[in-house]
Structure formats: structure tokens, C-alpha cells
Design goal:
0% strand
Amino acid sequence: MLIQAILLAAIAVVAVMLTRSTADARHQAIRRLLLAAFVVSAVAAIIFPQGLSYVANLIGVGRGTDLLLYALVIAFVSYIATNHRRAHQLSRKITLLTRELSLAEARIESSTPTREAPDAEQS
């Protein structure tokens, strides 16, 4: 009974943390729907562990823990793919910002007159 309470509390904390997203509205809606499905599934698996074994047997998996492992592998792979896509997008944005900054600095340098430093020999 204690482990069920601890696991339910952990799922609640993760759910709250994952709802704080900065993605656009469509991705955020999809993420929240998937999060809600995850929370419902996790709560059901914790409260009714035999249900997970039943579902696993229905779809041809030997044990509920194996089904859980398969689901976690899929979740991990989707997480890696999402992070790779985000990192690629951030890299492109940083490249564009760097180019714009360089061009802006070049424009500023070309528009300001430069003063020539006096030669050391003239002092």
C-alpha cells in the first residue's frame, strides 16, 4: 500500500512538471493528451497490477512487466527523437542568429569612421 502511494505521488509530480511546456499550441495539446493517457495508465497499473498482466496476455506478451518494458522503450525512443529534432532546430536558430549578429556588426563597423592611431615614431 505504501509503494502505491509513493508511485502515485511520483506520477503526479512528473505530470505537473511535464505540463509546463513552451511548445506551440498544437504540440502542447498533443503532449497534454499523451500525458493524460500516461497518467491514467500508470495509475491503473499501480492500483490494478494484475490488469497489466491481463492486457499483456491479450496482446500476446507473456508478462505485464514485459509489456511495461516495451512501452518504456517506445517512450524512450520517442524522447530521443524529439530531443534530436529540438537540438537540430536550436542549432539552426543559433546559426541564423550568429550570421545576423555578424552582419549587424559589419554594418556598424563600416558606417563608423575609424580614427587612425598615431605612429610610435611620431611621439
